[in-house]
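Sequence and fold:
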Amino acid sequence: MAIDPQQLRTCLGYFATGVTVVSCLVGDTPHGATVNAFTAVSLDPPLVLVSLSRTSKAARLLAGRPFTVNVLSEEQRDLALRFAGRPEAPGTPPAWLPAPSGLAPALGGAPATFSCSPWASYDGGDHVLFLGRVERLAHHSEAGPLLFYRGSFHSALTRGAHEPAHVPAT
């Protein structure tokens, strides 16, 4: 049975994800792309994965380069739009933090960052899967996450009396 790509996309949209900007340095110029396909892969060694459309400029720029995954907060919707190719998005230009030697710059104000060296890349059909070894990480705030659900950005549910119980890792 053939799967209709549009139906697949619609069904995948029911899985809420966080929103990140993956950045790299080309020469002296930082570049970034909004990505919601980001996941942890391994704790030992520390590996993360981002998936980029094979035809995207970001996939071409990221190949073989160090990259930083910048987790965005609900207050950074404008940055998500800017790096999704909508430069007319309101807001101030991005503030880049200096890149540690051999790594990629991070976005100022990102609640969490993962600075990675390239580990491997894999064919992912119409995407390329980039694995990075986490060399440095940081977290800076307790801001709520920016979420992507059914084709649009959302803020996290209000915390409070209905906050779910902590589920221990297995």
In short: The CA atoms of residues 96 and 107 lie 5 Å apart. The two ends are 35 Å apart (CA to CA). The chain has three helices and twelve strands. Confidence is low (pLDDT under 50) at residues 158-170.
